[in-house]
Structure formats: structure tokens, C-alpha cells
Amino acid sequence: MALPRQLREESDFEQLPDNVPVSATIADIEEKSGFIVYYYFVIEVKTKGGSKYLIYRRYRQFFALHQRLELKFSPDVQSGPYTFVLPTLPGKVFIGNKQEIAENRIPELNTYMKKLLCLPTWVLLDDLIRMFFYQSEWDSQQVPKALRRLRPPTRKVKTQKPKTDLLSSPRAEAVFDFNGSGKLELSLKAGDVIFLLRRVNADWLEGTVKDRIGIFPESFVKIIKPLPESDSDEEGRASKTKGGAQGSYSCLRCYLLEPEGIDTRDLCVEEDFTIQPSYSDLLARMREVFQIEDIALNYRDHEGDLVRILDDEDVTLMVRESKSQGSNVKRPINQFPWELHVTRTNYLSAYNTEY
Predict the structure, then answer these.
(1) pTM, rounded to two decimals
(2) Largest separation between any pair of C-alpha atoms in the chain
């Protein structure tokens, strides 16, 4: 293995364990559509012993690591022989396209990791460094999508229209209403027959209804005739093999309460339905879904009254009440047990109105 010059000159380098990371390179970025959209950096790590593996890290994890290293080792904070000057980490960016920001950070983060792993050997043994580059169980369960910087992109297959012989075509019937929250999602009504085009991943399918094409969660439909195995793309099969570790979606039903009526949406996010999102993430996502800035978040308590959500503690209360109440209402298996009711901030009469 070709090691950095600084490491090769260290006489005690050979005494390091084989699982110590010695180089790391960003192989790709991957979008995650949770309650907010963010990007992971997919990083290929090489160890002293020659093994390779992938880890997934957000910029905020780089930032947290840098802060902790500064407090522990910076000569501006500590004194003594075990201090060093940290490499420069690219700063936070608050405005701009998230994908472009992530792409632009790749060269700087690669340089940051290279310089970090070229520090003295006692730094490489520090728990902060080792845990950051350690492949967790969650990391090992992820299925990389492209790894564009390690291999050329594969050819994309153009979506085919359904066969003219409709009775022999793969199809499904909608069991629940699904109100798509994005342009790519296919809204469904219970009873709709959907002609299946392909499997997107372990949880989502692409299909067509009445000349409309889009994606939808499989848990909202009953499969009448399944897709041939060959029509399930590599990502879909890989996700199933890994137990749906990546690309696992849950759906949240949300309502916009207006004087003239209710706008119902099903927001599907790449999160487990047992998680509890933050208030700020919920607020940002609802603003995006309904395209209204001045909104308030609410939920209905066990008596059916509308309760306004103001902070993370209120979100905790909402989730706790939804678990304690239970429900006899039939839901898709991956639907959140709680629902959001969104109002405009000054629409106070909503609290005195029965919908």
C-alpha cells in the first residue's frame, strides 16, 4: 500500500493495528429525503491492513469532529506536547442549492481527510478519529447507488410504457388513497388499477393510471400481477437483500386546514416511522409541501381538539399521545401513527371549527 510520506517516515507506524484508517476518499454524494432533504458523503476508507469499506457521513459530522479535535488538541486551547494544528475545514454554507453545495465541498473535504490522516500516529489512535472513520452497523447495511468517483456511471434504461395486452400486464390495485406531495409521485384513489412499469427500490414502484405516470409506495396497493424479476432494477433487489436498509420509506398524512376546505397530502420520507423529527424539520418540510411560509403546526388530541405545536417538547407530546391512544383505523404498515394539521398562523378560527 502506498502510504503518505509523513506516515512512512514514522518509525512506530508499523506498530499500529491493521484496522487503523490511513486514507479516505469521497466516492459519491447521496440524497436523503427525510423530513428535510440533505446529502451524505459516501466515503471509501482504506486501513493499514489493506481492507476497504464505505462509510456515510454528513457535513455536520465533519463539523462536530473538527470542533471536538480543536477542544482536545489545538495549541490555542491546550498546552503540552500532544497538540497540533488542525487542517482547514470548509465552512458552513447557509444559502444555495444543497446538491451543488455538497458537490463543491468534495475536493475540500478530501483534502481535509488526507491531511487529518497524515498527522502523527498517536493522533490516528485517538478515539475521535477512529470512531469517525469506523464502519458502523448502519454503514454496512447501506447499498451505494453509483459511486461516481470510483467507477463510470452505468447506462440508464429508458422507462417503457405498459404493454398493450392489459390483462397480462403487471398491475396493482390501490387499497388506500395516496396524495402525492411531489411532481414525481403518483396520487391514487382506493380502487384505482395501476399498471406497473418498474420497481424503484424495496418500498416504491413506478406505474401509470389514466395517462399519469409516477412513483408510489407499495404498501398502499395490492399487487394483482407482479413485475417480472428482470424489471426490478439492481437497487430494488439490493435493498430487499439488505432488508430495506437503504431506501426505506414511511408516510405521514398531513392536512392544510383552510376556510374553504382541506388539502390532504401524504408525505413520504426516507425515515423509519418510529423516529421523532424535530419541530424545525417538520416546519420546514410543511412549508415546502404546501408552499406557504406563514404556517402553524398542530395535532389533534384524544378528544379531537386541535393543539398547536410550538417546539420539540410539543412534538414529543404528540408522538406519545398517538402511541397511547392506539387506533382501530386501518393504515398502511409504514404510515406514521400521528398526523399533522397545518394552518395559517393567523387562522385562529380553525381551532373552533369541526372538519
Answers:
(1) 0.57
(2) 78
